[in-house]
Amino acid sequence: MSQRISIHGQWSSRLMFILAASGSVVGLGNLWKFPYITGENGGGAFVLVYLLCLALVGIPIMMAEVLIGRRGRQSPVFSWQSVAAEAGASSAWKLAGWAGMLAGLIILSYYSVIAGWTLAYLVRMVSGSLMLVTAEGASSIFTQLVLDPERLLAWHTIFMVMTIKVVSRGVTKGLEQAARILMPLLLFMLVVLVAYAWRQGDFAQAYAFMFNSDFSKLTPNALLTALGHAFFTLSVGMGAMMVYGAYLPKGISIAKTSILVGLLDTVVGLLAGLAIFSVVFAHDLPAGDGPGLIFQTLPIAFGQMPGGSFFGTLFFLLLVFAAWTSAIALVEPMVSWWVEKRGIDRIRAAIWTGISAWLLGIVTILSLSSWSFSFSFGGVLKRHGLFDVLDILTSSIILPLGGLAIALFAGWVMSRDAVVEEFEGRAGIGFKLWYFVIRFITPVAVVLVFLRAIGVV
Ligand code: TRP
Q1: Would you kindly state where each structural domain of the chain is located, as residue ranges?
Q2: Could you read off the pLDDT of 48-84 as tens digits, one per residue?
Q3: Does the CB atom of residue 326 touch ligand 1 within 6 A?
Q4: What is the radius of gyration, based on Cα positions, of the chain?
Q5: Between 201 and which of 212, 261, 279, 396 could a Cys-Cys bridge form, CB atoms 3.0 to 4.6 Å apart?
Q6: Any idea which architecture 14-453 has in CATH?
């Protein structure tokens, strides 16, 4: 087996791993994407399917991914390679590591653009320019931003620099430090916002929208969206959790920490959804307006509420923090790979990764204004052009396939003994349950949802 600890360093405690992993999972996925896709897919039934996907697919895969990382102790590509070698399996498994790095680069590129929107809105909230904004006003402010490539490029650049700065400082001084400061603040702000939405918003209607299931609204495409989002929100399927696992000291329980991180992510997503829809419904605004939901719809509501400017600022600050800690994790698989492969220092590797994602991000920026087109996927018309293509390619295709590879590898390719060893040698009832799920339930669920989405079953 490879070295006992990774050359990049390791987490200084169990709590630091939990904070860093939570920083990775809690992101724009929870606060921006989950509410808008829930809105687009009609609420209730979609949420239920999504929760099932988290429990039966997402969280079990998270455990498997962290496990492969800790056993390999290297960047995802090399961890795949060495753990496959240990299992006597083909080195082709490392292709999953490559696909994951590609997905990471693509996600990071558009993630940084959206994070740029949140920075822009933070400034607007602080300056009070969104107070008492009308529906037309809010929509024209949003459109003006999205259709202005220069402004988007400036924010995209600022966010990428913030991210690369942290990553270049290393595991302890960069990744841990950011998580230690930003995560407690983030959770505190979320609680404050939920309390505010509870008092000032229409909580009952938000609750009904999210939890009253109407299965007639559930299309095959919504199934795939729910599955894809379970991967996206848990940051699994592309190696980010694998590299965080590579920095996990021996003796810390992968099962307990993964379940904790998965639950935290779920709770944050649900709370954010409840808070956002409470505010939106209190002003009779639409839930299904797509990616503009928190940028276009929410400011109208905040603009009319007591203390709206303060709480609006808090909300966008929360988004910036969440996006920042996730972007850091998106960069790490590539940076660790570059350092191992080329022997270059971390700062240089971080800068090169940043430049690559930054360049690709320009494609998203341009597609928002000049190359907008419509296309259909699984019978659903998409309106946002290239941005949707990148999102579907990663969330709905590469992440689920990467997750499938992880489940099959941990369930069928690695020896049971090696897997048990990473469970601290304890093959109790919890282990047996997980092992059954990862071998049978998870792969079948992923394959079925896929076949259903492309119309085969
Ligand atoms: N989980 C992140 C979010 O919810 C997005 C994400 C997907 C991610 N894959 C990742 C973050 C890998 C870090 C690493 O916003």
Answers
A1: 14-453
A2: 999 999 999 999 999 999 999 999 999 999 999 999 9
A3: yes
A4: 21
A5: 279
A6: Up-down Bundle (1.20)
